Inverse folding.
């Protein structure tokens, strides 16, 4: 008996707004509502046929609280009969939302599921839920845990610390890290000029293009101080704080036939793996190895790759370990240039990956990203 398939019908995103930029004043539910409405319009699907909406979001507090997936669906004026679920796997939240949507479809329990994510980091700063809790006298997530301290001691649990450890472990120089970071902007600006992102973006609040990419100024970047005293990681090597949302329609074979849909790709593989939570950002390496072993593919079989640019050393260490062709990786820039609206980035990567696979006639595309806690998701898509 053939395995059930999960098909990607379409995907859409907002432009990625920079911190305090054009999308800063948009309520998180309205950010999500915008892409949900655009997805329904683009696919022509009857919204009442959607079984579930699953959105990723971090810092689920204030305008991002109370199950923002459900709120966004209702704010879009869509049917009350469709439930919503909001999930948090840190930076990989909306990629995990896609995994859950695909699993629901492949299991036969759902036929049409919307996956995506939303994040307004201008309104709700990164780690706000944790800092807000601290204001009420609650400890940070690790303080006071006997088991955690017994296992990991008092080592800093910080993405900045992890990025420095990776740069040190893989002997990545500041010059190499800077070269990679500047190239992200160059590639993103080139993609924008060529109109590569235009079809995937639903303009919002007068913003029609990603606000992050800018012309590199090497002298200015070289003058930046390291984030950590004595380190080599600067702000220019980190993803940008951003606002945005993205949504993907996932369908079963039955739904494709019933609704006359034309899939753009199918989900070839989904998985997630963990690694050292102190290094934190290295999990894409074992996660990619696991995904390739499960599918029988080699890294050379993958035509295009999106690995989230949380920090420059994440991608460079991954390249060193996987032997992937750099010319197939983040070909239109990454989060260092385009931004990283945490809960939405996974779905944003999928949306952009689909478009580039179609432009190039690629068969396989792989997406992965590091996540807090030393985790990583991997999704492999096959273009149809």
């Amino acid at each position: 008996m053939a395995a059930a398939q999960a098909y990607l019908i379409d995907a859409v995103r907002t432009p990625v707004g920079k911190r305090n930029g054009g999308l800063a004043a948009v309520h998180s539910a309205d950010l999500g509502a915008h892409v949900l409405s655009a997805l329904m319009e683009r696919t022509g699907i009857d919204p009442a046929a959607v079984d579930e909406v699953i959105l990723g979001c971090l810092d689920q507090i204030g305008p991002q609280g109370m199950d923002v997936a459900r709120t966004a669906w209702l704010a879009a004026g869509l049917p009350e009969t469709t439930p919503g679920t909001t999930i948090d796997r840190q930076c990989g939240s909306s990629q995990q939302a896609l995994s859950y949507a695909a699993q629901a479809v492949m299991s036969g329990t759902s036929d049409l599921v919307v996956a995506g994510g939303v994040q307004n980091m201008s309104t709700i700063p990164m780690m706000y839920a944790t800092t807000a809790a601290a204001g009420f006298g609650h400890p940070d997530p690790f303080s006071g845990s006997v088991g955690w301290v017994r296992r990991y001691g008092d080592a800093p649990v910080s993405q900045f610390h992890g990025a420095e450890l990776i740069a040190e472990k893989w002997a990545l120089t500041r010059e190499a890290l800077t070269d990679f970071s500047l190239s992200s902007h160059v590639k993103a600006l080139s993609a924008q000029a060529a109109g590569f992102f235009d079809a995937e973006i639903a303009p919002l609040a007068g913003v029609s293009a990603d606000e992050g990419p800018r012309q590199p100024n090497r002298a200015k970047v070289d003058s930046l101080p390291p984030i950590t005293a004595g380190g080599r990681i600067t702000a220019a090597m980190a993803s940008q704080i951003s606002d945005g949302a993205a949504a993907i329609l996932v369908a079963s074979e039955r739904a494709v036939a019933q609704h006359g849909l034309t899939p753009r790709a199918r989900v070839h593989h989904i998985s997630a793996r963990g690694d050292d939570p102190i290094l934190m950002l290295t999990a894409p390496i074992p996660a990619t190895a696991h995904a390739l072993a499960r599918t029988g593919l080699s890294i050379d079989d993958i035509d295009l790759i999106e690995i989230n640019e949380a920090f420059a050393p994440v991608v460079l260490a991954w390249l060193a370990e996987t032997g992937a062709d750099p010319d197939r990786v983040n070909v239109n820039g990454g989060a260092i240039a385009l931004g990283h609206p945490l809960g939405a980035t996974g779905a944003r990567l999928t949306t952009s990956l689909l478009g580039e696979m179609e432009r190039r006639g690629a068969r396989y595309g792989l997406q992965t990203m590091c996540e807090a806690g030393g985790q990583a998701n991997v999704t492999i898509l096959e273009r149809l």
Observations:
- The two ends are 21 Å apart (CA to CA).
- The first helix runs from residue 28 to 43.
- Strands lie at 7-13, 17-18, 52-56, 84-87, 112-120, 242-251, 265-274, 304-307, 364-371, 375-383.
- Residues 184 and 333 are 4 Å apart (CA to CA).
